[in-house]
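Figure 6 in text form: structure in, sequence out.
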């Protein structure tokens, strides 16, 4: 009777699968935040470019020029802040990517071990079964005298 294969590290493998799933979810979340920040930066840069292109006009008073410059400086600060945040999020994204790769490797390593042990178990079971068949054939064999 063949024994069922039992992988003794099955709980560890399941835990590694959970860690990989969590790492993938964190990566997706980091990617979404990075993409949103990139869109925000592009919008802010577009606003700054439009503001600079528009200028303050021909009939602008000194107050209008001051307001135009103040708004431009605020937009430039917003662009700088958005760039810094994008760089920070890019760093987080890279860390999440590395974590996901690491978790995937750890899981695959255990899956390969499980496959190797399962193959080894099945080979051993087949040899044992063949040995039993050979013994039965030897016992049942009756030489015939002529």
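Output sequence:
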């Amino acid at each position: 009777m063949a024994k069922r294969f039992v992988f003794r590290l099955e709980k560890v493998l399941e835990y590694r699968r959970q860690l990989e799933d969590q790492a993938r979810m964190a990566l997706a979340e980091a990617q979404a935040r990075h993409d949103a920040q990139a869109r925000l930066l592009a919008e802010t840069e577009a606003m700054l470019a439009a503001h600079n292109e528009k200028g303050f006009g021909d009939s602008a008073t000194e107050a209008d020029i001051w307001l135009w410059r103040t708004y431009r400086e605020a937009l430039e600060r917003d662009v700088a802040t958005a760039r810094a945040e994008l760089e920070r999020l890019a760093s987080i994204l890279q860390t999440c990517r590395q974590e996901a790769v690491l978790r995937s490797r750890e899981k695959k390593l255990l899956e390969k071990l499980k496959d190797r042990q399962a193959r080894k178990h099945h080979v051993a079971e087949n040899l044992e079964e063949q040995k039993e068949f050979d013994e039965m054939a030897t016992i049942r064999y009756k030489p015939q005298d002529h």
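Caption detail: DSSP finds two helices and no strands in the chain.
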